[in-house]
Amino acid sequence: MADLIALDDARDERLRDYTDLRDVQLRTTVEQERGIYIAEGEKVIHRAVAAGHTPKSLLLAPRWLDNLSDVLETTDAPAYVLTEKAIEQVTGFHVHRGALAAMQRPQEREPREVLAAARRVLVAEDLVDHTNIGAIMRNAAALGFDAVLLSPRCADPLYRRSIKVAMGAVFSLPWARLDDWYGAPALLRELGFTTYAMTLADDAVSLEDVEPAERAAVIVGSEGPGLTEHWQREADHRVIIPMAAGIDSLNVAASTAIACWHFSRR
Question: What is the pTM of this model?
């Protein structure tokens, strides 16, 4: 059972995993180095634990002790109890959910492992916005995709903002990073996937005319330039979502939702 430790000093060294949560660059480095990620809110903490992830510690306002009693009863991690005002001083912002946990970061899975039994895969190239990463993970999970593959430069799916936007889907949907990004099209081809690049290329076909293959990988590019020429050239098909009113494209999260819906319903 967790030790409940009441603290009144926001500068206590034991709280260092929770300091400056709004500093994205700092937190990305710190969390990777310490092998942790931050789960924010009762529901996210419960989903992380249900997925088999292990708390390193918890930071709670008193009002959340009852709601998280089941977690506290099954972990040896310390639970630091502070007022909500003190928690705000630690984290740098008002944590309106009043509950945080520093979770031990699980070992990342290998691409071949997550692809082994998958039929529908979403592939993301250089998405650097954590909100977009969380959104596409949620889209893929909600619309029946089996896995997500990320380029080395994609934002962290286990960053606090990504988890929140994904509504915990990052815990249930298999995902992996592809270190050999240049060779990834060949890997997908080797494993029997037909690849579909979402692009504004002149020869792209309308999504509504695409009949998905039995094993399909939908590829989306970064927020600004979109997919690189390499991926557009190497994909088996180039696909576009028809737009009206002179607008050429949608936000990557919105376009991903449409593409996932089209491929899952077939």
Answer: 0.91
